[in-house]
Structure formats: structure tokens, C-alpha cells
Amino acid sequence: MADTTENQENTSSRANDGSGDCPPNSNQPNSNQRNPVLAHMMQHKVETTLWLTRIFTVICSVLFLLPILGGNPYSFYHRALLSAAATSALRLHQRLPNVQLNMAFLRDLFAEDASHYLMYCIIFLNTYPMTMSLIPVFLFALLHACSFTKTVLNLMGPQSLMFVRGMITKLEAQQVNILRFIASTEIFLMPAIVILIFSGKATIFLPFIYYRFLALRYTSRRNPYNRYLFAEFRQATEYLCTKPQCPQIVRNLLHKGIWFVSRLGPEVQAS
What we know:
Layout: H1 2-17, H2 31-34, H3 36-43, H4 45-65, H5 73-95, H6 103-111, H7 113-125, H8 131-156, H9 162-173, H10 175-198, H11 206-218, H12 225-241, H13 248-264
Helix pairs in contact: 4-5, 4-8, 5-7, 5-8, 7-11, 8-9, 8-10, 10-11, 10-12, 12-13
InterPro entries: PER33/POM33_regulator, TMEM33/Pom33
Subcellular location: Membrane
GO cellular component, one term: membrane
């Protein structure tokens, strides 16, 4: 009788702590039900990692521009570029998971925007820190983090962090203007690099390397804003040349500049 009572007590204790053969109470919510945000992140690990690296890029860029934490601000500059490079590398792996040693794979590799910005980050990691060079990585990280952030906010609740939701809405409304501003920054970084050479803060090879980046951005299949800006700059320059107030020597210099830039521009293949 004592054995039977002890067995009943052991069975009851095992059932209570879930260590026995009896299934746990189905009415108790599991961890995924208690925390849908964590469940979503665990289910989408690559997207979560991309989101975190982009947020880290934004934070480091802001801390470089506004050194409120003290210390060496250039460390945040390099961290922002390293984080952006990690984002581009992971995104590139996501787009082209199977590496192949042939020309078709290389064409697909250099056609991806992620490879362009991986090259961009490597270029400016090895040069004198330029505030202007952080603008594209900062804005791209900010824009691309919006979608996942909205998903996280929706999982947290329809009324959660309305201030952040409002900022995301405003960013998405200005997406075209932001992409145009990024493209103009990419273009005007070239004369800034030339100035760095004359100031002794960059090597003579840097403009040639950055030219390859600009050529890749010009032929981008996903982001045509670089081509749009080049076309608009050319139209504005040609319109300036038609003005009677424009001196002849300036007109000749502008026409030669248009001819030189047009010769450098790569041909864009129709997709």
C-alpha cells in the first residue's frame, strides 16, 4: 500500500514538472506564443542579421557625425563601413549562394548592387576618413531597415511605438528623393577624391578604383538613379552653354567636359 501511494506521488510529481511520459499542459503558451517578435527573428535569421547590421551602421554613422559618447570618432567611421560591408557580403551571399568560377557568375556578381557597395566600403576603409563617404551607406541602411522594422512593430502591437512608425512613413514617402541624393553623393565623391589627392590624403590610384565603382553604379539594373542624375547634369550643363551670358572659354571647357565624361561612361545593356 505504501509502495502504491509512493508510486502515485512520483507519477503526480513527474506530471507536474513535465518530466514524465504525460504531455505538458496544452493550455500553457510556449515561448513562440509569448514572444512573437523573437519567434519571427528566429524563423528569419538572415533577414534579422541584415536588419541588425543595418541598424548598427546607422548608429555608428550618427555617433561619427555627433560624437556624443566621446572617444575617437574615427573608430565609429570604420565600424559603420565594416558593418555596411558585412551587410553587403551577406546580401550578396543571399542573392548568389552558389559560387562558380566562370565568366557568367562574375557578370552576375558585378551586376549586383551588393557587390558595388562591398567594393565601396573596401575603398573607403583604406582611405582618409571622409564624412561624405558615410552618407550613402547611412541612407541605404536606414531605408532598407524600414521594412523589417515595420514587421517587428506590427508583431509588437498595432499601436506600438507610433513615433517610429511615423518616421518610417515619412522616410518611405521621401524614398525617391533619398535615392536621388545618394546617387548625387556617389557622383560628387569623385571630385572630392581628386581634392584629397592634391591635399596628400589619398593615392593617385584611388580615382581609378572609384571610377570602376561609378561605372558599376551607372550600369546598375536595380538602381537607375545614377544614370538619371548623369543625364540631368548633362542637360543642365548644355542648357548653361546655350546662355548668351556664358563666356566662350567657359562654354568650350564645358563642352570638352561633357565629351570627356561621355567617353568614360560605359554602355548600358538593355535588361
